[in-house]
Amino acid sequence: MRTQGKEILEQTISSGTPLLLIVWHGRMIVPVWQMRRRGIVAMVSRHQDGEMVSRLVEQLGYRTVRGSSTRGGTAAALELLEDMRAGKIGAMICDGPRGPIYEMKPGTAFLAREANATIIPVAFAARRKWQFHSWDRFQVPKPFSRVHLIWGDPIPPAAASETVEDLTLRLEGILNELTARADEITTD
To answer: How does pLDDT run across 116-159, given as a tens digit for each residue?
Structure first.
């Protein structure tokens, strides 16, 4: 595994500022593993696949709040917001629970604005992987594959003049660029 940006992530965590980690649905497995046992609070959907994800991440030391853009999202966002304001690191899968792939839902930007949080995007790519035939093209690295995990530059809290819609589009672009960079590095 090759990791980029981890030192900046650790500096941001040490600063004590509210922090939200963001990742695409199909690219969550490596960052989830990398950040295990740190008391992160993750928003996980109430859908059937969310139950499996919730059980898995809780075994890895995460706490979950259950909700998504289609079911229970407001209550889950408020609970996550409260946790972030209390000093916990938040984590969101931005295109779930059912896509479209790599298209950010506005809840991410809303939560980040309300928490006045710094945002750190994360992406990974693996040279050899299993890729599911699901809407998110979920990826699992094959054993002994070269994996690149990239923690993006911290995105400071949004300006008061930036709308949720504008922040959503900006974050989507940043996360897509980071994902493309991970894919490019892996194919080199």
So the answer is: 999 999 999 999 999 999 999 999 999 999 999 999 999 999 99
Boundaries of every domain in the chain: 2-187
Q: Which CATH architecture has domain 2-187?
A: 3-Layer(aba) Sandwich (3.40)
* 49 in Cβ contact with 59 (< 8 Å): no
CA-nearest of 167, 120, 177 to 6 is 120
Torsion over CA of 132, 137, 138 and 140, rounded to 10 degrees? 70
Q: Is the pTM of this model over 0.85?
A: yes
Contact assessment for residue 174 and residue 122, using Cβ atoms and an 8 Å cutoff: no
